[in-house]
Amino acid sequence: MVRKPVAVRPPISESWRRSRDAGVDVDVRAAPLVYDRDVLADARGAHPLDRHVPMLEELLRGVADETEHLMVITDDAGHVLWTQGPPAARRAADAIGLTDGFRWSEDAVGTNGIGTALASGRAEFVYAAEHVAHILHGWSCAGAPITDPDSGRVIGCIDVSATVDALHPATVALVAAAARLAEARLENEMRQRDERLRDRLLPHLRGLGGSGVLVTATGRVLAAGPDAAAPGPAGWRGLRLAVPEAGGTVTLPDGRTAVAEPLGEAFLLRPTAAPGRAAGG
Predict the structure, then answer these.
(1) Once rounded to an integer, what is the mean pLDDT over residues 213-225?
(2) N or C: which end of the chain has fewer CB within 10 A?
């Protein structure tokens, strides 16, 4: 009897292509080590998720099977910063480098829940032989990227991994929910920082007589003077400008050019040209 070929899910076939283009060896034995202990401690402390790891651990501990599942949190490059799991799962994970300080990007080990979620920008489930590396065929993993609301960039991934028979595909919904909760906490912190910045820096904006714009170091508009023309029906709310440089020129949505004056954690954009005139016009 001739067996029909099994259809490969599009996210997996796309990941296989990326892995092939990156030259990933199917016989790779483990993920590469990128951080020693001292560097790892610094990387953890500098990461925006550092304060939220206990919350994520508690959330997943209450839902995932504590006897079989390994929780992994990485940075945006797939470097593992935190892991949590039972001794048996950790021993098995150590053998393939699924532990603190190792790199799990697609270009390092091929298709996997961490690297593939980071590459696609969405939650992914990778099962058994869907992994490119043969050594990972006994594993399944579900990962979801975490986006920083301040910069708009992916800053990491949260993943739950286990042996093939111990991880249900529905786990991908769990990690996606955990990622959204982490993003909500990051956004709350961002709003609090924004309020503190406005309180401190609005006098600088008022000093321009109503025509300037106050932006964060990531380009998000914090406030605009009453004479600054609104770029659309929603006004300046939620608008992000090209990240300015100190003393550099920025083009505002209404066509004016403005010079970026650094104010610590933010920039004050001082208009230098009338609306509709380009820089140097």
Answers:
(1) 91
(2) N
